[in-house]
């Protein structure tokens, strides 16, 4: 059964691994290219602009060199899991039902669960192993480019690095495989893979991710000449953090609303506009970069549970329905 499953699915598996290998190779190339550029221009380790060697002109030139790469790469990494789910998961069972070959397999003393699990393992395990490596390489590769990519805590940086890449791929494969078992149509399974993947990805990011752990809160006074919400001239929210909320208070400590539309060109700075609206203190809530792996693990577990539930539904349908 294992050999037959491999013979049936080897083309999809090998193409998937080849695609992952190409993307991984691009990541490795640009990692070394960025490190070499930073060393040659004396900005190694720079993640923010300062008055020393990490000057605005040097960092702007660095960003200009790699901004196209940083803009395109996340799109590729965001699309990769759903593509793998469409072409490795959706045809997995749907094509067997369309061609009628499942009848031959299931009448050769092979149980339905064994048939289902063997095909799924052969198709999914190599692909998931490849995406696990890809996610870790992406995290390593993009660290020198943190200034250009604006950190890894916000979309699309969070979704294209770390262990969630594997979790997303598992979900996409589970959606495609389950849709194939339920509808027994490859095109329908592919379409459902795209729809369900996008729905879950966007829904979890918007509704669940901000609540995985408590954000850090900082307050600062509004002072002319400083950055908005600053303490000692430094921004309350680090450049690589994910800002999730803001609040404004008057001199008495009472929360007030800030109306950006009332700012005038004569104000000169945003601080002047805030002061004119009787705002004395600004509060910011954010998730710092140090929470990256905790949020990654939590989101991966959510997608693992969702994938397990979908595959269980597919197995139940396979056992209950007639061949």
UniProtKB/TrEMBL annotation:
The keyword Transcription regulation does not apply. The chain crosses the membrane at residues 12-32, 69-94, 120-142, 162-183, 190-208, 301-319. This is Transporter. Keywords: Membrane, Transmembrane, Transmembrane helix.
